[in-house]
Design a protein that fits this description.
single chain; 7-stranded mixed sheet; Nucleotidyltransferase, domain 5; Rossmann fold; alpha/beta; binds zinc ion; 8-stranded mixed sheet
Length: about 550
């Protein structure tokens, strides 16, 4: 038997095994930027990730340029080619969809004799009417739908067997539940989540923490010690006249130079109890790492560059200073009174946040007086002292504001019970009120109350900015025993201010919660009531 014949037989055998051997399918069919995938040499740290094909749920927290998109796309194409599954590939925006699909999907397909034969490029015309942003729909035997998460309607329109989520941390958090719902009618229900991280405990970092938390260990070829590679323990350089010289990765033990991607390596789990496979991948493992650039970024005095260094460079979450309220802020605001204590006659305001229970916060213009939770909107004769109504009566409140959602009818009714004293608030205002209020400053400009009604609109980010600034800049006192109700500080700390760029490159701030945040919103509503009341009947400077 000739060699060519033997090769052909081997090829046939491999082909018949593609369904069980994802790695063979990859080696035989996949290229990335016209290069074959290489798990034996430079990218062996990725082999285990690709080995997780049968896992229901896989999470990848990674730096940029670490191979996560490649993994997502190749697995999606494999799934439709070998299993006929429907795959939905989510990206944060539709911007550059065409180019993305062209480079990352079309190219490897065109490079493979097998794939090019099986692929049918569908005309998107018919679909386009229904789902506007579904720019590219690829058909092998199954399909891949590419979707941007900005369009809720389009997200809802397609059921799938596997969802691929690329750059989770760039997506609006309220869209995430819609992603999982796409799998509702499937028996397969596989999820793939990948992103560079942003803030701790948010997005991909939260998912990684729920996973089995795999980290890559390499063995030093000189002293044989196993270690993870970190920027602080392993990256070394000299500085001569401000120039970075002789940058290198060293073994943390014997300090000899090593190339992590050439070392023996293995993934170890920090949380083996989880059945979600989670990988932390960073540039220092990759042969294409630009070490000098990374070192330069790490030394930047600009916080946004430091943020980049952590997120994009190291694949680690980073908490910028000032984005979140900390324990010292609360300590700085501590007054000389206890929860519920009012020393002199002052105007009283209350905010109510409506959820499973109703959280409330009582304040004067200068002090937070009380906070907690009640179960009912209205006085309940068999469960006294457990309603929003009784809080209003107890403190003889001058103005209160209540979340208009989700129990709009009850919120309106509560306002009607106390004519002129209640506001039910929506977070929907995009621009400040105009003209007549020009002379006023601050939050008042952002509180729009419908004429002869209690219906109120404000802006979520702006109002929270003003309200949380009270604590940051010590403009409000809090009870000295505030820790007796730990939710108070915890909920406020759980709101984190995040600035993201939209598709047009405009920066946009928002608050995202990293845990329960109800008291923070109750505080915000109380402050809205206060600002409206003081702005409306208080002093005006004319
Ligand atoms: Zn060593």
């Amino acid at each position: 038997m000739g060699l060519a014949m033997a090769d052909k037989i081997i090829q046939e055998i491999r082909k018949s095994k593609w369904k069980e051997r994802y790695d063979w399918w990859l080696e035989d069919n996949w290229t990335s930027r016209n290069k074959r995938i290489d798990f034996k040499n430079e990218r062996k740290y990725l082999k285990e990730l690709y080995g997780c094909f049968d896992k229901q749920k896989v999470v990848v927290m990674s730096s940029s340029q670490a191979g996560k998109t490649e993994w997502l796309i190749s697995e999606a194409v494999y799934s439709i080619d070998q299993f006929n599954w429907n795959c939905i590939y989510f990206l944060p925006t539709e911007k550059n969809f065409g180019q993305f699909v062209n480079e990352r999907v079309d190219e490897p397909i065109t490079n493979s004799q097998h794939l090019i034969k099986s692929v049918k490029q569908e005309k998107t015309q018919g679909l386009k009417d229904k789902v506007k942003d579904s720019v590219a729909v690829k058909k092998l035997k199954g399909r891949i739908y590419f979707k941007g998460t900005q369009n809720t309607l389009s997200m809802k329109s397609t059921p799938g067997d596997v969802v691929y989520v690329d750059e989770l941390d760039e997506m609006d958090t309220d869209k995430v539940p819609l992603i999982q719902k796409r799998l509702h009618n499937s028996n397969i229900k596989k999820e793939r989540w990948a992103s560079t991280p942003t803030l701790p405990n948010l997005g991909i970092h939260a998912k990684y923490k729920e996973s089995d938390q795999r980290e890559y260990f390499v063995q030093c070829p000189h002293c044989k010690k196993w270690q993870t590679i970190t920027f602080w323990d392993n990256v070394k350089w000299e500085e001569i006249d401000g120039e970075i010289k002789n940058e290198r990765i060293e073994c943390a033990y014997c300090h000899k130079k090593i190339l992590p991607y050439k070392c023996e390596g293995e993934w170890r789990k920090n949380n083996p109890k989880s059945d979600v496979a989670g990988f932390y991948i960073h540039q220092l493992l990759s042969p294409t790492c630009d070490l000098k650039e990374l070192i330069k970024q790490s030394k930047s005095p600009v916080e946004s560059e430091i943020e980049q260094f952590y997120n994009q460079g190291l694949g680690l979450p980073f908490e910028p200073k000032g984005s979140k309220i900390s324990d010292s802020h609360f300590e700085n605001c501590k007054g000389d009174y206890k929860i519920g204590e009012i020393k002199e006659k002052e105007d009283i305001f209350v905010g109510f946040d409506v959820g499973k229970v109703i959280h409330y916060l009582v304040m004067t213009p200068t002090k937070i007086i009380d906070f907690g939770e009640v179960d009912h909107f209205f006085k309940d004769e068999v469960d006294l002292d457990n309603s929003a109504e009784e809080i209003i009566e107890k403190y003889n409140v001058d103005q209160f504001a209540i979340d208009a959602m989700p129990e709009t009818r009850d919120s309106i009714e509560l306002c009607h019970k106390f004519p002129g004293r209640g506001l039910y608030v929506y977070y929907g205002l995009d621009k400040p009120k105009k003209d007549e209020y020009e002379e006023r400053e601050g939050l008042f400009k952002w509180i729009e109350v419908e004429k002869n009604a209690d219906k109120t609109e404000t802006n979520r980010t702006v109002s929270l900015d003003y309200t949380l600034a009270l604590i940051r800049s010590r403009k409000i006192q809090i009870p000295l025993d505030y820790r007796n109700y730990p939710e108070f500080a915890d909920h406020i700390k759980n709101l984190v201010r995040v600035v993201r760029e939209d598709t047009k490159g405009n920066k946009k701030a928002s608050y995202e919660e990293i845990g329960p945040d109800h008291i923070a919103h109750a505080f915000n509503y109380a402050n809205i009531a206060k600002e409206f009341y003081l702005g409306d009947v208080g002093l005006t400077f004319l």
